[in-house]
Amino acid sequence: MNWRARLLALDGMMPALDDTGRLAWGTLADAPEDAELVFLGFDAGENGGGRACFAAVPPQGDPRPRMANPQLWNLMAALSPEDLALYGGARSLVDWHARHRFCPACGGPTRIAKGGWQRDCVAESGGCGAQQFPRTDPVTIMLVEHDGRLMLGRGLGWPEGRFSALAGFVEPGESIEEAVAREVLEESGVRVRDVSYVASQPWPFPSQLMIGCHAHAESDAVTVDETELAEIRWFTRDEVSAALAGTPDAPFTAPPPHAIAHHLLEWWIAE
């Protein structure tokens, strides 16, 4: 075993940090006995000689949304973009392994394969031999504009004053444009047109790919779906600018900088 290889330190599914606030690393000697290891890639290393990096699969996964874990929210906000991307990808992968130890086709045990980027049903144990792969779930997140104002929503259970872009999963058989139109109509009662793509962001909590879009509303008459949102409001460009700047008299609290919703708002202001 190569003891020079690095092992990402995790406290269950939470990131462990070193004294500098960066992700903490150990060696493979720190891995729990018989733990499944997922290969994350190679670090930059010295003189181009990178070391292999791994993460250990925990005993249990965590299907809760990130908002249900305030401690994780705070730790994510403290990580650098590079560490956040690395932790997010590792967390998503080991979480998938922890929650897919049995075959969905026959119920037999599965084992890790291809460095952790696949699981195989164990045919020798009477399984069907099916191969399973980590999943990614596409989610549209959209800025909806009408007469120079932007529609933003506050989710159920969110703090007063915190608003963000509307979002929802892409359903089977839908295009991105159709998903944007449907989700906006369902959540706000507003019909949109001219849907365009802006940017994307992996959001592995547990396995989303956020697809950022912009659309124009046909009217500003809102009917809030109270099973999904606490409220919806329209904000002017100056109000969005104040929220992004964090001014004391801003009319709402903007999404955190590590979220794509924050960058969509910055894009809208720049446009």
From TrEMBL:
Pfam families: NUDIX, NUDIX-like, Zn_ribbon_NUD. It catalyses: a 5'-end NAD(+)-phospho-ribonucleoside in mRNA + H2O = a 5'-end phospho-adenosine-phospho-ribonucleoside in mRNA + beta-nicotinamide D-ribonucleotide + 2 H(+). Its EC number is 3.6.1.22. Its cofactor is Mg(2+); Zn(2+). PROSITE patterns: NUDIX, NUDIX_BOX. It comes from the Bacteria. Belongs to the Nudix hydrolase family. NudC subfamily. PANTHER family: NAD-CAPPED RNA HYDROLASE NUDT12 (PTHR42904:SF6), NUDIX HYDROLASE, NUDC SUBFAMILY (PTHR42904). This is NAD(+) diphosphatase. It comes from Pelagerythrobacter marensis.
